[in-house]
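SAMPLE LOG
Freezer: B-3
Tube label: C17
Construct: single chain, 367 aa
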Amino acid sequence: MRVGGCKRVAISYSGIHSTRILNCSRIYLNILLVQSGSLSIMGNLIKVLTRDIDNNAGNFFLDFENAKPTEAERQQWEQVNKVLLEALAILDDLQSYRGAGEEIRQAIQNPSVDQVQERAWAAVVPLVGKLKKFYEFSLRLEGSLHGLLKSLTSARCSPTQHLEQEQALARQFAEILHFTLRFDELKMTNPAIQNDFSYYRRTLSRMRINNVAAEEQNEVNNELANRMSLFYANATPMLKTLSDATTKFVSDNTDLPIENTTDCLSTMASVCKVMLETPEYRSRFANEDTVSFCLRVMVGVIILYDYVHPAGAFTRSSKIDMKGCIKVLKDQPPSSVEGLLNALRYTTKHLNDETTSKQIKNMLQVN
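STRUCTURE (predicted):
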């Protein structure tokens, strides 16, 4: 229904029915963000006052209740949902990854004892199989991101309208970011991953030199091992994958204004920031894990924005309030956000540009 040229929208929550008028300066946005991992549902209708992507004052309603895909979203949603379900198992496998450190140490100390060498090899091979699974999943995650970006940034409507009308896809986009940051946090704190893979590559190379038919017996041959090596050499491999994928999405879709993508990202960052910094809204979280979820999503979209926007996320013209976002991070317990701060310090593209203010650089300096 339209009233005075504006669209009338009815919002119902907990038995309360309210009608609002949408105009150019007031937007109601319902986004479902579900914590990846336990998939617990966080509730309460949260009103967040923040600037919208057109630099006008806007009202954002974030609903942490259940968002169901519309028929228009369903095909894309189902494709991405399969990947997100697999993401839970990936995180479980990574969290329980213990490595073959003792077997490798024994093999290095006893290079001429075949039994010790065989024991180390037998321990490492299945672990490298897990690392292969993680790497191949990153490729599927890249495909899912492309599909979501195509849906959420198409020219048929504005970025804000996309987020408003395609809430289930917006939720999945947030879940991908949450998974990505969580994966990288776990990877960075587990040196066994690099140690196991390095030992595997050295042993595989030695087998080739000695004409031992190793590659035919193992699922990770030398060519795949080279690609995996580039992936795991990065401090935040999943985030690097998404950053490259987002950049490629923009470059491949030259008919799509870059603002469609950057405005989507900056809106998500702004909404997460305001939710986190406002006690009234933050107190409504049903689960404290919602805080870490929102922090990861905020940092994830900042980094993607910094890669996609020509000037980056740290300039004065940026639509992301970087000082505010960094302050929100620093207001958390240090141990819970150090990985996220490091992601901003070491994986962004424009932080060290001359156009970045000294204040922002100082805020991100390691104490």
